[in-house]
Amino acid sequence: MSRNPRGFADCSWLREAFLDVPREHFVPDKVWWPAPGEDGRYPLIDRAEKPWAWLKAAYRPGAALITQIDDGAVSATGPAKGAFTSSISSPGVIVELIRHLDPEPGDSILEIGTGTGYTTALLVCRSGSAKVITVEIDAGLAARARACLRALGMDPHVVTGDGERGHADGAPYDRILSTASVRQVPAAWLRQLRPGGVLVAPLDSPFGCDLMVRFVGDGRGRAVGIPVAQVEFMRVRSQRVPRSYEELGWPAQVNSMPWTGLRIAADATGQRVTAGAALGGACGWQGRV
Questions:
Q1: What is the dihedral of CA 181, 182, 186, 192, to 10 degrees?
Q2: Which residues is 69 bridged to in the sheet?
Q3: Does 89 qualify as catalytic in the annotation?
Q4: What H or E segment, with its residue span, contains residue 157?
């Protein structure tokens, strides 16, 4: 078995969830393509005008679709410029996120960054509505996601709030998944993990990308993890301002190290990145601390 296979690997439940949940149900009728056109603006794909192009875009394995620019200040009326602030992640990336999260049936799950609600729906397929809590900072996005989920008979707890705080009322959690990247892992997420609980989050790195990191918590506010994939995600709002990597616990010579061999330890005092080994998991991926 490959140490770090791609795609569904042997996660048959995840493959079935992808087949059962209609992705197009969660994609807004107007979305931006993430690559700029010749005019430097991001093309708008309008379902009413180009239904086939819209549907193909929705299901392209490697394509994220932009659902919000500049925190909603830009209206979806045509091609646009600005900073991406919400999207529906590409199917391929969502597979990686959930496979490394590796939830068991009935696990309590906290999702940070509801967005369209599509990833939430896949998590509900595994754990059930009553066991999934999802937090979205944008009230409009949260309301739309809630409506989309309910239309499919799903009723997870959709919370409008700052995801960096987690959701203490439902803690502790077996699994925490962030669909927004961070420069430093919020202490609240670590506190809200059960002993042995898994946190998967994109972490800003000096490698010119985010690293998807799979952490295992000790139940006392500390977790250790390793990177499992290179990804690109939008930053949580309060961590958009750049910080020095040295301040964030990265070693000075990190660029000379392979990212696959790093170990990240995080707690309330910060994080420390060193050369290390792997953490265990299922669904086609295994290792050790």
A1: 20
A2: 84
A3: yes
A4: strand 157-160
In whole angstroms, give the CA distance from residue 31 to residue 111. Answer: 23
Which of these is catalytic: 86, 87, 89, 178?
A: 89
* C-alpha span between 282 and 104 (Å, rounded): 10
> Please, are residues 214 and 198 in contact by the beta-carbon 8 Å criterion?
yes
Contacts of 247 (CB under 8 A, 6+ apart): none
Predicted TM-score of the model (pTM): 0.92
- Per the document, the length of the chain is 289
pLDDT (tens, 9 = 90+) of the chain, 289 residues, equals 334 556 787 889 999 999 999 999 999 999 999 999 999 999 999 999 999 999 999 999 999 999 999 999 999 999 999 999 999 999 999 999 999 999 999 999 999 999 999 999 999 999 999 999 999 999 999 999 999 999 999 999 999 999 999 999 999 999 999 999 999 999 999 999 999 999 999 999 999 999 999 999 999 999 999 999 999 999 999 999 999 999 999 998 887 788 988 999 999 999 999 987 544 444 433 332 2
> Is cis: bond before 227, omega within 30 of 0?
no
Query: Helix axis angle, 12-20 relative to 91-101, nearest 10°?
Result: 140
Nearest in space to 24 (alpha carbons), one of 119, 118, 93: 118
Q: Which domains does the chain have, with CATH numbers?
A: 21-88 (no CATH), 91-275 (3.40.50.150)
* 204, 235 contact by CB (below 8 A): yes
Rounded Cα distance between 41 and 35, Å, is: 8
